[in-house]
UniProtKB/TrEMBL annotation:
Cell compartments where the protein resides: Cytoplasm
Biological role: Ligates lysine onto the cytidine present at position 34 of the AUA codon-specific tRNA(Ile) that contains the anticodon CAU, in an ATP-dependent manner. Cytidine is converted to lysidine, thus changing the amino acid specificity of the tRNA from methionine to isoleucine.
GO cellular-component term (any): cytoplasm
Entry note about domains: The N-terminal region contains the highly conserved SGGXDS motif, predicted to be a P-loop motif involved in ATP binding.
Sequence positions that bind ATP: 18-23
Enzyme class, spelled out: ligase
Originating gene: tilS
Keyword terms: ATP-binding, Cytoplasm, Ligase, Nucleotide-binding, tRNA processing
CDD domains the record matches: TilS_N
Source organism of this protein record: Paramagnetospirillum magnetotacticum MS-1
Protein name: tRNA(Ile)-lysidine synthase
tRNA(Ile)-lysidine/2-thiocytidine synthase N-terminal domain: residues covered: 13-191
Length: 429
């Protein structure tokens, strides 16, 4: 845990506990560590409701942890489950529920039990997919989140050691049937582990390789952060400008990663674009992009010697209802705050393709704020029963709207550059 510090005095930790050997061992070890420092642990079990016995298993985990004096909560994945890509949907739901629980409890540190064998499998899987440096660095020990940090303290610990720890304590654990299902690539890789180890590709060595690649990734990321601060302009309206000729002068790996960061920051989505598609866009940009393209929820639009990277209108989130006194993030890009005394029936949503003409009409010919035409449909608008109540980023507020929407600013899920805090440029931090 010490390499993942610093922690506050009396640290409060959350641990994701499925009931398997690795997560149970982590919960016990984390509780011991936290108590020695005057802190506490909250164990969180996500019940995906995908198997008939999942709820009973989650309750049994709670009983085991209760016997150790560890607080426990079950988080249920409610609602209909998708027929396609169920594993990915379950993973997204799991991390959403865990994050919401941490935010509600004011806990800054969520521990997950990925271990050395998991790290080795991740490296091999990503190698098979043709991943670049990001993918081959496998799982990071620490990842910042909207509410705090996700921590993986067991990445250098083998699975066998965790199981031996539980056996020594006489602690049983849940056997997940999916760990024997060879429909999953990870399970098939485990079957090959002995042969790979015989050729020198042990979990320990593969984990070391991932760590060395992560070290290289950190060095390249520092170059990307500096390039972002020097060469990218991010506007409060949520779009970016970049000169392709500047991109072409950067080392290719730096340019690719800068482009990927821009797409994540502006697009507001959680999925990094596939490397092959990113490389095609990079090649088109450095050769001189002539027509607009889309990737990762963004439009890339050539404008003179620059390109504008803005949100793809068709991928925007639908309008959301705004209750008085609430603060929300919309479309992964903007944060809005509504006054406590606001009237009900307000919604926040994109201006859409007719937004420019509608706002111009409402403003009676007054000039709009200077925002590129391709960006305007992606801007947020505040709506009531009469239509557009406010489009603050275009300079329009119907009478009294300024008292209703007390805050609206760009707040992307993905930071572009921490380096920018010393640069004076308009960068999101």
């Amino acid at each position: 845990m010490e390499p993942l510090g610093p922690f506050e005095t009396g640290p409060r930790l959350a641990v994701a506990v499925s009931g398997g050997a690795d997560s149970l061992a982590l919960a016990l070890l984390a509780a011991q560590w936290a108590r020695a420092r005057g802190g506490e642990v909250l164990a969180l079990t996500v019940d995906h409701r995908l198997r008939p016995d999942s709820t009973a298993e989650a309750e049994r985990v709670g009983e085991w942890l209760g016997g150790e004096g560890i607080a426990h909560r079950i988080l249920a994945w409610e609602g209909d489950k998708p027929a396609a890509d169920l594993q990915a949907a379950a993973r997204a739901a799991r991390y959403r529920l865990l994050g919401e629980a941490c935010a509600a409890e004011g806990i800054l540190h969520l521990l997950v039990a990925h271990h050395q064998d998991d790290q080795a499998e991740t490296l091999l899987l990503r190698l098979g997919r043709g991943s670049g440096l990001d993918g081959l660095s496998a799982m990071a020990p620490e990842r910042p989140t909207a509410w705090g940090r996700l921590l993986r303290p067991l990445l250098v610990v083998p699975r066998a050691r965790l199981e031996a720890f539980l056996r020594h304590r006489g602690q049983d654990w849940v056997q997940d049937p999916s760990n024997r299902n060879e429909a999953f690539a990870r399970v098939r890789l485990r079957r090959l582990a002995g042969d790979l180890a015989a050729e020198g590709m042990t979990a320990q060595r593969l984990g070391q390789t991932a760590g060395r690649l992560a070290r290289a990734q950190t060095a390249v990321d520092a170059m990307v952060a500096e390039a972002a601060a020097r060469h990218v302009t991010l506007d409060p309206a949520g779009y970016a400008r970049l000169q392709p000729k500047v991109l072409a002068r950067l080392p290719e790996e730096v340019g690719l990663r800068l482009l990927a960061r821009l797409l994540l920051c502006v697009g507001g989505e959680d999925v990094t674009p596939r490397l092959e598609r990113l490389e095609r866009l990079y090649t088109a940009l450095t050769a001189g992009l002539e027509t607009a393209r889309t990737l990762a929820g963004c439009r890339i639009v050539p404008v003179g010697e620059t390109v504008i990277i803005c949100r793809e209108p068709a991928r925007m989130s639908p309008p959301v209802d705004l209750a008085p006194g609430t603060r929300i993030r919309w479309d992964g890009r903007f944060e809005a705050m509504v006054a406590r005394d606001a009237s009900p029936g307000l919604r926040l949503g994109g201006l859409g393709p007719q937004g420019r003409s509608k706002v111009q009409e409402l403003m009676g010919g007054k000039p709009l704020e200077p925002v590129p035409a391709c960006v305007i449909p992606t801007l947020p608008g505040l709506y009531d029963e009469r239509g557009i109540l406010a489009a603050p980023l275009l300079g329009y507020n119907r009478d009294g709207a300024g008292r209703v929407l007390v805050g609206l600013h760009a707040s992307p899920l993905h930071v572009l550059s921490v380096f920018a805090c010393a640069s004076g440029n308009r960068h999101y931090l």
